[in-house]
């Protein structure tokens, strides 16, 4: 098992061997023949790392982020790019009902996180871990594929407290923005790590993949390993906008580089790109993508 760290609201930051073990297994897999499950609201959101640069400093964006998250109140949020204190700010703004799991890309509180927030009234983590997108995935901070940054995956096995204690996995990642090789090499590693999990359970994957859906081999490769694009699978969809806008305005029918993928059998009721802003201020340079789904 890799050497990991975990951050929670009440426990603070843990690093090194003290947090290396996966949490004890708490429950059993879903039982065949149960009634259809309850809807689960899932969000993927590249937060844009906190900075003091105006006009889109974190201090300017934080109130808009807070209002958006309070309006939507998803059960689980896969985030990318958050810095440690920024995540603590979001933790405070979300309130006591939410907790989160994550470690910095360089370990501990260093660098950006691929953190997962969750509503503790709805979900309980059963186990979790991290791995790095490199030839040495269990080495914290490793980067062997020429990526512009260290990249990683945070995964959590959740129990749904309001849905007969069904369980599912959530994997959250942020693929490299510059290196096609690094993105391409990431897919078979993610596939191999998925195969280590309990494949009888539904799996969701949130992330900023840094390539456009339908227009890149990485997208095709992720679907080839058995994942489904929830945007395409949704019964109902909101308008499509480019999910990276760079604070320059919305782009109708633009590139969707932030996705939520799922294993087959997940029922997707609605998918949307959230365009919330206030007084011209967006909470991030990305739009959060949201789906309402039933894991199975």
TrEMBL record:
Keywords: Endonuclease, Hydrolase, Nuclease. Residues 43-286 form the Endonuclease/exonuclease/phosphatase domain. Transmembrane segments: none annotated. The keyword Membrane does not apply. The keyword Hydrolase applies. GO terms for molecular function: 3'-5'-RNA exonuclease activity; endonuclease activity. Pfam families: Exo_endo_phos. PANTHER family: CARBON CATABOLITE REPRESSOR PROTEIN 4, ENDONUCLEASE_EXONUCLEASE_PHOSPHATASE DOMAIN-CONTAINING PROTEIN. This is Endonuclease/exonuclease/phosphatase family protein. The lineage of its organism: Bacteria, Bacillati, Actinomycetota, Actinomycetes, Kitasatosporales.
């Amino acid at each position: 098992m890799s050497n990991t760290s975990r951050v929670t609201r009440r426990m603070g930051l843990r690093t090194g061997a003290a947090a290396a073990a996966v949490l004890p297994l708490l429950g059993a897999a879903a039982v065949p023949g149960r009634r259809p499950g309850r809807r689960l609201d899932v969000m993927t959101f590249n937060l844009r790392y906190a900075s003091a640069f105006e006009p889109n400093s974190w201090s300017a964006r934080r109130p808009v982020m807070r209002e958006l998250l309070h309006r939507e109140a998803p059960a689980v949020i896969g985030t990318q790019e958050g810095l440690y204190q920024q995540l603590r700010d979001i933790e405070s703004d979300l309130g006591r009902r939410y907790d989160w799991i994550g470690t910095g890309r360089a370990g501990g509180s260093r660098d950006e996180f691929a953190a997962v927030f969750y509503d503790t009234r709805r979900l309980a983590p059963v186990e979790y871990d991290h791995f790095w997108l490199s030839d040495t995935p269990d080495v914290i901070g490793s980067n062997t594929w020429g990526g512009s940054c260290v990249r990683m995956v945070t995964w959590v096995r959740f129990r749904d407290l309001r849905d007969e204690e069904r369980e599912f996995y959530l994997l959250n990642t942020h693929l490299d923005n510059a290196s096609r090789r690094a993105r391409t090499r990431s897919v078979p590693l993610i596939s191999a790590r998925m195969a280590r999990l309990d494949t009888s359970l539904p799996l969701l994957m949130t992330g900023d993949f840094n390539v456009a859906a339908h227009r890149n081999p990485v997208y095709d490769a992720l679907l080839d390993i058995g994942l489904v694009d929830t945007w395409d699978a949704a019964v109902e969809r909101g308008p499509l906008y480019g999910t990276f806008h760079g604070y320059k305005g919305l782009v109708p029918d633009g590139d969707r580089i932030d996705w939520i993928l799922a294993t087959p059998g997940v029922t997707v009721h609605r998918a949307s790109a959230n365009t919330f802003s206030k007084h011209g201020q967006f909470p991030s340079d990305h739009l959060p993508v949201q789906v309402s789904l039933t894991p199975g």
